[in-house]
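Weekly structure sync, notes
Attendees: PL, DS, HV (note-taker this week)

Item 1: Rho GTPase activating protein 1
DS walked through the input record. Source organism listed as Seriola lalandi dorsalis. Sequence as pasted into the shared doc:
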Amino acid sequence: CVMSSELLVDLGEDPATAQLGQLKLATIEDQQWPADEATLSKSDISQRFDGGSPHLPWDHPFYDIARHQIIEVAGDDNFGRKVIVFNACRMPPQHQLDHHKLLMYLKGTLDQYVESDYTLIYFHHGLTSENKPSLSWLRDAYREFDRKYKKNIKALYIVHPTMFIKTLLILFKPIISFKFGRKINYVSYLSELEDVVKCEQLLIPARVKEYDNKLRASLKPAAQPPMSPPRSPPLPNQVFGVPLTLLRQRNPDGDPVPVVIRDTVSFLSEQGLEIEGIFRRSANVTLVKEVQLKYNSGAAVNFREMEDVHLAAVILKTFLRELPEPLLTYQLYNDIVNFTSCQSGVCASVSVTYIIVSANSDVNKMTNSNLAVVFGPNLLWGRDNAMSLSAIGPINNFTRTLLDQQHLVFT
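Item 1 (cont.): predicted structure, written out as tokens:
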């Protein structure tokens, strides 16, 4: 419930909800889980900081929040929506965390994506009586988050919910809108998230994984939930999740631009330029999987028959995000100005599409800045997949520069 303002009310005058603050949120056993990382002094962390780190410099105003990695961005989900993750277990004791700054940091992260469809995943395990936010903080959060944060959130997934949080939501049911209530989903086991997002891209805290294993072990064999499906071996004609060098070798013409890029760019150039919010909207996950299967089976895909511009846009973003190495390469993650390692043929093709879309921004509302926010995380990410607010800004700024200067970069 920390994640959504629509779940929060002014709790200060309600004695029933005031009593909830006294409820024990976790057992003693849960509270004794080891920390994910050893505690470091400010000097230790500042010495280890580098440009590619998800942490901010120690003298940055939000350094003391970012270093805990409570809030992360984890690419797109299976529907093509940005994924924002909140890790309750990484919240330090109340007296060690400035909760007002945490709220501002959360707003700053969401501000990057609230104009697009997005998903929130809240890992509840690890929220204890020692680190839970105060009721006054929840009240402040309710006042801070206005409609723009609620409009495009498509789902809130509460992972490993406890009786406490379920009771809290029941008590708040009268003031939760029916529309938003349908967006709330309880997730009992990590494997259930696979229908929404690839768990490997979430960088799930170790203690959350251990807790999930503990829950599974406590069940009788007949009641065991399904494990996350193993990664399927690549199909002979597979194109998603395959290195660009291999795709080029397979192409008899030696065309450096993969067929997925050619098809989506061609279709979007013809029919997507005047669609407002193009690249910001999600698509039907069943259709996305069907199109991926067609490509991976070597079958032809005709987006004109489907007449779904947003589907083509999601397929393009999904292809880029599922590359084994980002289009702008891991090498550039720490030195983003070194552009020589980019797969130039594909970069040029994708960039031209963005420029054409941006040229019609009066109609589709997708300026270079907006396109950079949507596509930056699909062009470059760290080896651990997750991305904090401190990494988003430079990547988006670099992507916008590529678009602004494409006539110089790709000539």
